[in-house]
Amino acid sequence: MAYFLQQLINGLTLGSIYGLIAIGYTMVYGIIGMINFAHGEIYMIGAFISIIAFLLLGLIGVSYVPLALALVLLTTMLFTAIYGWTVERVAYRPLRGSFRLAPLISAIGTSIFLQNYVQILQGAREKPMLPLVQGGFTVFESDGFAVRLSYLQLLIMLVTVALMAGFSTFIATTPLGRAQRACEQDMQMAALLGVDVDQVISMTFVMGAALAAVAGLMVTLYYGVVDFFIGFLAGVKAFTAAVLGGIGSLPGAMLGGILIGLIEAFWSGYFSVEYKDVSVFVVLILVLVFRPTGLLGAPELEKV
Amino acid sequence: MKTAASGLAVLKEALATLDWSALLKDAVIAALVATLLALPLVGFQTYDIGGGALGIRTHFDWVATAAAAVFAGRLALRLQQRLRRGGERRGETLFARLGTWGNRRALPITLVGIAFAVALPFLPFSSRYLIDLGTTVLIYVMLGWGLNVVVGLAGLLDLGYVAFYAVGAYTFALLARDLGLTFWQALPFSGLVAASFGVILGFPVLRLRGDYLAIVTLGFGEIIRIVLLNWSPVTGGPNGISDIPRPSFFGLPFARSAPEGATTFHQFFGLEFSPAQRVTYIYFVILALALVTNLFTSRLRRLPIGRAWEALREDEVACRALGINPTNVKLSAFGIGAMLGGFAGCFFATRQGFISPESFTFIESATILAIVVLGGMGSQMGVVLAALLLVTLPEFGRAFAEFRMLIFGAAMVAIMVWRPRGLLAHREPSLRLHARRSAAL
Question: How far apart are the CA of A130 and the nearest CA of chain B, in angstroms?
Fold first, then answer.
């Protein structure tokens, strides 16, 4: 029981991170119907920018942890968002209206480019990060096994919940959110009604990148190491989460993220750590085969 | 002369009407974005200072260089676009013309190409290194032709092609290790096992939309790699399998001294022993395999099944209306592509003599895909050109090697933006109802 609870906490933490990345996939897919394969690299770039920001703050001498966290959060989101914007502008926008595999191939190219860009600039070795948020409390204890919830895990979950709430409100109430929903339903019609579709798509990439940046920051804090290759697996897993939840659906992305986190945590806890990535891929294949619309997605009709 | 003079006049006129301030503003904005992009990752470089801590150095000069380069590049690009717009767009680019030329002169070019490939080991400037390089190029050519069936003809994006390559390689390695089969005996099995994997994977997933399929195949490729990595009792785990037998020439091994009761190649033919014989032989094996692959796939294209692949790529709904079963047709493309990958894998194993999961990563899939895409999807000649380019370019300079993948990724994007159908995308549909939808531009 205690072990189960511990895995549940670990899974929820991991799932929050995947959920945040998954939102970027799901929103882009909802609007322009493409898999932004480079999104995982955006998350990786977020992680690197956060580590650099922490180092710089350390040099300046900001030692009050909440202030440092807030500053790093903001800078990371800002700079990563610029990366997201640029990727859309350079690699995807010229291809709009091209044949259907072109944007995906371009996205793979972008992903390879960004990975090697970071590797060349920052080196291939893992970047360590000293633990910043330490401590925690024992939730529950039985048979000498203490279930621990660290402050960091709590922070990750809280930040995720807060971001999700804020983000959903944003989509539901602001003019930009309305434009996004309009584009998702029918891009051509939205354009006819005066929505600047290009700008909406750009902003979608910016938001997705900003959320991925938060995920990158949290993963830096959580695992304490970052390397240039983390984006690939995390990207595939977050995409799986988006598909599992129903691609195009925001709550679905979050739900999918948490489920993937739980599957991974329980699989490594009860079966084998070596095959934990396989479990996620198997889930992906099963979901796509048996329920391609995902848990919360609407069935997709193909109009001829 | 006259056209040149009038062209110059047009150019002058176009230059005069340019809106310089708008152009400069555009370039400045681009440079600004570049500065912001470069600032965190280029401007600050983290490095180990020991004890699990990181130090940081600054490279603001690099940021400035990047910004300047983007400014100049953006300005040049815009200028070129504006000037182009003035005059009518010149009908064909260099590669389009090259593609048409290659199409028209397909037979002579093919013959010259094959003749060169056959003669390569005997040319005066040939060396062991060159033959080795040629072998590598040919492996990629063969893989490209195999994947071309799936991506180029059937239009299914397969991001896990390397899985079938790996399956073929491991099939041979295991058959050789446990049952003592030779290369030629194991070759059909490698293809067969890989094809079975293709069908097993394809059957449930081929109903999916294109990009879902891409992700599932990517997942499959990773599953195969992770299983190979962790299933140590059978696959040897990260250490892989070594001592894979080399191919023999009709039962004559290439060795200095023959094992009991056998004759070696050089003894049989009364030649002096030289390791180059084996290298050359391996080169010819892959050349033959690649040519058979090419012949096989180009014949398939003319069969009803090949027609169905291409039709399906263009319009699935129409195909369904015409009574083609999309799943079966896709499955055949997937299976055949997998089989060819398996053959190539078998050859790879015998050539290296050692295989490990490290040779079968996603980047390998991406490389093969890039060869197909760069060459022009569906173009056999394009695959050869792209494989030559991608394999030999990094060999020219070791300093360049570090940037290989960087340039590789950028080239994939650039080619998609510039020519979404690939460098040598010359193929025209044999019949056209309306002269619209020229997506090949």
Answer: 7
A295 near B CB under 8 A: no
**To the nearest whole angstrom, how far is the Cα of A140 from the nearest Cα of chain B?**
33
> B310-358: per-residue pLDDT in tens?
888 888 888 889 898 888 888 999 999 999 999 999 999 988 888 999 8
Count of A-B CB contacts under 8 Å: 174
When CB atoms are compared, the residue of A55, A284, A304 closest to B56 is A55
In which band, very low, low, confident or very high, does the pLDDT at B399 lie, cut at 50, 70 and 90?
low
| pLDDT at residue A301 in the model | 59
Alpha carbon distance B290, B287 (integer Å) = 5
pLDDT tens figures, A127-159:
888 777 777 777 777 777 778 888 889 999 999
In a domain, B39, yes or no: yes
Confirm whether B197 is domain-assigned.
yes
The 10s digit of each residue's pLDDT in B164-173 is 999 999 999 9
Is residue B257 domain-shared with residue B403, that is, in the same domain? yes
Cβ-Cβ contacts under 8 Å, A130 against chain B: 52-53
Q: Looking at the partner chain, which of A75, A103, A239 has a beta carbon nearest the beta carbon of B215? A: A239
Residue A239 in contact with residue A17, Cβ under 8 Å? no
**What does DSSP assign to residue A22?**
H
> Does B4 reside within a domain?
no
Largest Cα separation within chain B, whole Å, is 86
**B119 and B21, same structural domain?**
no
Q: Which helix or strand (DSSP H or E) is residue B55 part of?
A: strand B54-58
Please state whether beta strands A127-128 and A225-226 pair in parallel, antiparallel, or not at all (unpaired).
antiparallel
What's the ipTM? 0.85
Domain co-membership, B43 together with B182:
no
Task: Kindly state whether residues B45 and B110 are assigned to the same domain.
Answer: no
Contact check, Cβ <8 Å, A59/B56: yes
Beta carbons of B190 and B171 less than 8 angstroms apart = yes
How many structural domains comprise chain B?
Answer: 2
Domain range enclosing B77: 17-86
